[in-house]
Write a structure and sequence with these properties.
- The protein has 246 residues and is of the alpha/beta class.
- The chain has 9 helices and 9 strands.
- 40% of the residues are buried.
Amino acid sequence: MDGRIHSIETGGMVDGPGIRYVIFAQGCPLRCIYCHNPDTWNGNCKRAKTLSADELMSDILKYKSYFKHSNGGITLSGGEPLIQKQFATELFRSCKQNGIHTVLDTSGYDGINDTTKQLLAYTDLVLLDIKSINPETYKKITKQNITKSIEFAKYLSTKNIPTWIRFVLVPDINDNESETHELGQFISSLSNIQKIEVIPFHQMGAHKWKEMEMNYELEYTKEPSKTQIHNARKILKQYNPNIEVV
């Protein structure tokens, strides 16, 4: 089974535990206004590489010693890897056969079906990107509805699949304290959360929007202040006292 791959990072340190082989899948159904990789949206982009799971595994195995000594592994990110579920399942199955830790970095937007369940059976950890818990704010950010992402989060909890929540804090978009309280309450209803990451919005991907001649709505949006980040973490910790919030 072939996958459409945007890029690969062989020494990732932020997308899961340890040193990680990070695969950025091509294609995404969301249109996040703060996306720093809009060049991953088009699933048929000519710049993307087509690689089989076996081809990737032959390269991944070269880094197995690094995974072992750092408690690392591979992370399948995007784009949105769930739109290539069959490829992802084959890759993760092969990783588990070779004793390699697997992380799925996803918005959960594609929801739950039998193929998703098969993929999650080979998934050690999910990095679940929650844009906002408020349906209107979620749609403002992604141009899509929130229903499938919520369904996905609840399924992970039901199956007790280890999950880290990732929340990108964007001033004047999703930094409203009442919405952060709602998010904290929702996370507290899930039984499988190991960690919550508050990720400050940044402008490092702005140049890509200009290069692609796309309208970048957040051109003048500033990065959140230390106080804003601290307050968001404090609220989320209030509802989840036994979970690491960073």
